[in-house]
Backbone:
């Protein structure tokens, strides 16, 4: 069960259409500060729950993972909140605005045995659902192949 945080263009065009097509993945909730937008998007993609507060989503949903599609300056606190709730995380880049923030998130994910992945330009456009699902299962991000990764390049 996956929640999508942020109801902007990237979630509408890239993540939600792909997640809905994946077998074994249920998009269970959408969260956006603009509740009418979250509810409309949930209705459009046949998602059960809509929220306008990330804390409400994390407290009231039985999720395994979240996809964070919020503005860049919110990535770090949203990733930290999701990890604190024990969830796996896929986040649009950047993971955090500073190297120190990235290190803090990675340490937190390691302590909690959660997979955290920041989508990069090396991932399959518009999203890499196979990598997301494998990371959800606990595989290290670098061990999961990317279909359009150049030979010898880390992905």
Residues:
């Amino acid at each position: 069960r996956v929640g999508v945080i942020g109801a902007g263009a990237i979630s509408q065009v890239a993540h939600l259409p792909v997640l809905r097509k994946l077998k074994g993945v249920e998009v269970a909730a959408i969260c956006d500060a603009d509740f009418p937008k979250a509810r409309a998007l949930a209705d459009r993609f046949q998602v059960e729950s809509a929220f306008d507060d990330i804390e409400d989503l994390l407290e009231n949903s039985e999720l395994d993972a979240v996809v964070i599609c919020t503005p860049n300056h919110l990535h770090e606190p949203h990733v930290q909140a999701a990890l604190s709730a024990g969830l796996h995380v896929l986040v649009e880049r950047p993971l955090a605005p500073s190297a120190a923030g990235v290190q803090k998130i990675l340490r937190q994910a390691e302590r909690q045995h959660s997979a955290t992945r920041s989508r990069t330009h090396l991932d399959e456009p518009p999203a890499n659902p196979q990598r997301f699902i494998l990371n959800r299962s606990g595989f290290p991000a670098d061990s999961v192949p990317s279909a359009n990764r150049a030979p010898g390049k880390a992905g």
